[in-house]
């Protein structure tokens, strides 16, 4: 062991959720450490040129005094406020948020997390080890990308996921984009605008668009009763999912369909004109894909064939905590799961005492707001309240 340091809480991941939790915990006097390159996922994995789907008012990373809002960042740095926030602005905002917290983020990645007596041992790739009474996992959805079985015959250089950091302009002249959600449709628009011959192939019968009931959004106070400012989910559901604490108490049989409805595949309406030149094939799925004479051959379920240079997957992700490679096998086994999601209780506590999950991994119990930046306010406040009320005694939880 090169080095060791005891602390109360270690946070793994310095994306919006980890940074926000760190800000709140530190302000409450909790002895916390955080690991990870700030905003790495947004900076290195999201496509260049993308715009946030979430409205501006739902794109702020929460801090305890609301001093480090998106607006505060724009004012402090002279960044022009845009109606739709560009990815680059959001990345720079997250990095600025980190600098406002002062020193503290350790940019190294966690290689292994293991149980250690009544707490945990966190090992870094260089062999440095830390001990902590509690660990908060805020490691995002990077490892949860969906990979359909028909992809297995394609070489790795011919297929990629919308958010695995490939330069869209390096994919070739003909690209098939699979999926009908925001990331698939936005990547298709970006490719088309760059002169690529692009086709969207989606299983759903026709493309869906978010917020098409424009008039309902323009009724002032009535609209506020129908939709929350986060704009996650349709009329009514939007209000309910804005309260993760209430969602937590709703039985799974009711909240699962609500969650799925709130984040079903759909694009933002501002993408519609940008897709005018894109070929859209809906109601069909790909049944096989292979490399043939230097091209990718796709066969669809109607027997039709496509020849492209690259297949870009916009097929979303399935949370499966066993895919967090840093979790020791003992921990994976001990975490009670609900189809890959950790089964969480108050304070985002998993079944392993002292181990907590925030962000998308918490969405099964606390609802779909936890998939979005807007959920940082609830998660950070709830976590801090829980830690302050439930101080570990004598190293035990
Ligand atoms: C294509 C796409 C578009 C989206 N658009 C929006 C949007 O417009 N608005 C919105 O609110 N949400 C959007 N989201 C959801 C978005 O993922 C979340 O809002 C937000 O990124 C969640 O923050 P997070 O901190 O949980 O995860 P992340 O942002 O993924 O951060 C997790 C961090 O953990 C780090 N990490 C992982 N493993 C380790 C390790 N072992 N050691 C150290 N660090 C580690 C990663 O490097 C990563 O930076 C989008 C998601 C996708 C995929």
UniProtKB/TrEMBL annotation:
The keyword Oxidoreductase applies. Residues 8-215 form the FAD/NAD(P)-binding domain. One of its GO terms (molecular function) is oxidoreductase activity. It comes from the Bacteria. PANTHER family: THIOREDOXIN REDUCTASE 1-RELATED-RELATED (PTHR48105). This is FAD-dependent oxidoreductase. The keyword Cell cycle does not apply. Pfam families: Pyr_redox_2 (PF07992). Keywords: Flavoprotein, Oxidoreductase.
């Amino acid at each position: 062991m090169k080095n060791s340091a005891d602390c109360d809480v270690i946070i793994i991941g310095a994306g919006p959720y980890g940074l926000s939790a760190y800000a709140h915990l530190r302000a409450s006097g909790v002895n916390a450490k955080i690991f990870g390159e700030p905003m790495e996922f947004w900076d290195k994995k999201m496509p260049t040129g993308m715009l946030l789907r979430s409205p501006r008012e739902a794109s702020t990373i929460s801090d305890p005094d609301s001093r480090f809002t998106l607006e505060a960042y724009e004012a402090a740095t002279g960044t022009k406020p845009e109606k739709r926030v560009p990815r680059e602005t959001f990345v720079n905002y997250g990095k600025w948020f980190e600098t406002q917290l002062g020193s503290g983020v350790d940019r190294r990645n966690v290689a292994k997390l293991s149980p250690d007596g009544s707490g945990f041992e966190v090992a870094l790739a260089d062999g440095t080890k830390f001990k902590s009474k509690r660990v908060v996992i805020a490691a995002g959805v990077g490892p949860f990308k969906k990979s359909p079985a028909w992809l297995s015959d394609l070489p790795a250089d011919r297929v990629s996921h919308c958010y695995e950091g490939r330069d869209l302009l390096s994919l070739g002249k003909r690209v098939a984009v699979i999926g009908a959600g925001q990331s698939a449709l936005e990547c298709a628009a970006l490719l088309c605008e760059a002169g690529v011959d692009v086709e969207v192939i989606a299983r759903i019968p026709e493309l869906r668009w978010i917020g098409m009931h424009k008039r309902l959004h323009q009724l002032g106070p009535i609209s506020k009763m129908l939709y929350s400012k986060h704009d996650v989910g349709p009329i009514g559901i939007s209000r309910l999912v804005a309260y993760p604490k209430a969602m937590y108490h709703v039985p799974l049989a009711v909240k699962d369909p609500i969650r799925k409805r709130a984040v079903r595949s759909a694009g933002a309406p501002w993408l519609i004109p940008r897709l005018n030149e894109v070929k859209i094939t809906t109601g069909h799925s790909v049944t096989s894909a292979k490399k043939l004479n230097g091209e990718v051959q796709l066969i669809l379920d109607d027997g039709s064939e496509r020849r492209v240079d690259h297949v870009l997957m916009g097929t979303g992700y399935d949370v499966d905590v066993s895919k967090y490679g840093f979790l020791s096998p003992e921990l994976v086994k001990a975490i009670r799961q609900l189809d890959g999601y950790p089964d969480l209780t108050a304070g985002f506590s998993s079944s392993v005492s002292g181990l907590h999950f925030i962000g998308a991994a918490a969405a099964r119990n606390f609802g779909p707001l936890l998939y979005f930046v807007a959920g940082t306010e609830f998660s950070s406040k709830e976590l801090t309240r829980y830690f302050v009320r439930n101080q570990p005694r004598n190293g035990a939880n």
